[in-house]
Known about the structure:
Layout: H1 7-30, E1 35-38, H2 55-58, H3 60-73, E2 76-79, H4 92-111, E3 119-122, H5 131-142, H6 147-150, E4 153-156, H7 164-174, E5 178-181, H8 182-187, H9 196-204, E6 215-218, H10 236-244, E7 252-255, H11 260-271, H12 277-294, H13 296-305, H14 314-326, H15 331-342, H16 351-365, H17 371-384, H18 388-391
Parallel strand pairs: 1-2, 2-3, 3-4, 4-5, 5-6, 6-7
The chain binds a DNA duplex through residues 1-2, 40-41, 44-45, 47-48, 81-86, 89, 91, 94, 97-98, 101, 125-128, 160-161, 226, 228-229, 369-370, 372-373, 376.
Amino acid sequence: MIKNANxxxxxxxxxxxxxxxxxxxxxxxxxxxxxxxISSDLIPFGSNxxxxxxxxxxxxxxxxxxxxxxxxxGMRVSMHPGQYTVLNSFDEGVVKRAIDDLNxxxxxxxxxxxxxxxxxxxxxxxxxxxxxxxxxRFISNYQYLEQSVKKRLVLENDDKSYNIxxxxxxxxxxxxxxxxxxxxxxxxxxxxxxxxxYWINECRKTWREKDGQQKIHYSQQxxxxxxxxxxNTIRINEFMEFYNNLEMKxxxxxxxVKDKNLSAIKCINSTLKKNDIKLLELEWSKYKYAILEKSHxxxxxxxxxxxxxxxxxxxxxxxxxxNALEKQNDMGGSINAALHVWGYFKDxxxxxxxxxxxxxxxxxxxxxxxxKIIKSFLWKLxxxxxxxxxxxxxxxxx
DNA sequence: TGACGTCAAGATCCG
DNA sequence: CGGATCTTGACGTCA
Length: 398
């Protein structure tokens, strides 16, 4: 909160955030995830004058260490100021804050010591009942941006105001690359006759050598929620249909999805040129108890599916996973999975922990508490007893 | 004035 | 106290 934004707090939060992002990058490297969006909140109040901390100097070596990891692993990062960064506003103060905010994003990426292929993604902003004038204002305010911002800037179509035609016009005019977002284009399209691939090819023309590979945003609609809401997970069949029809695959596809890393790994495994069933076995080790909890039938099905070690039935595997996770919780499955996980501790837990577990377990059976309580207790035990296998498990996420 | 997006952290209430 | 549930926030546009 802004009232807590004193130098000591800011210092502590930044140190903590850098530590977290460092761990996240290690995770990405381990999982072969090559695209990563860095949160704009990495530096709290990064573009607000209330933050007077000279964070660039104070954390110089931490930034450079992280930057080195990004570069040596071949990772590509990006940042995405949200809907509140509006460069084409009528209000001069809003425009000034938007410029300050973009400068902050560029400074942050510069601090990592990484090249101009690591992008800052921006939407155009408001319409104010006159799109032509609003675009004109965007273009003229663009001139006030620092070179450090311009070299990283990419422009994206949004879900209600500026469609992909608008973006191609603006991007071409300013000689800035355009990011195509498939879901935004679906709900705010300029020409329904043209498909995604047409627009992707058009956007390709706006990417220059120094921008790195073309990048697009890919997401799917959450069918239960309002138009434009991102799905919990990437439905693999739908993704593969999109991917298989992509003519040029030399591009980066940034997934926008609630379960982030899970879908990233899913799509990576599904599109690998060189594959090995060991990758699916590794995934299975993480999903196992979540699936056991949701659906015993799918649990058996997956075990059978992975029996042939020369096979790589990746799509069938994720179909099973998606199918199982969509099912409603039932108490029998939850009890079964919880007991399996408890199996890791039954011989090492203290008497007190045993009592605690079975008290909670009985309370759950009598519907007095939710399964979440059991799971968070088991999670604490996994940490205490350093059960690596469980610490990697997705069981605790669902 | 609230919805929009985002979601962890904080506040509050309950037993 | 643990746990469940509700509220909040740095930001701007639009209906």
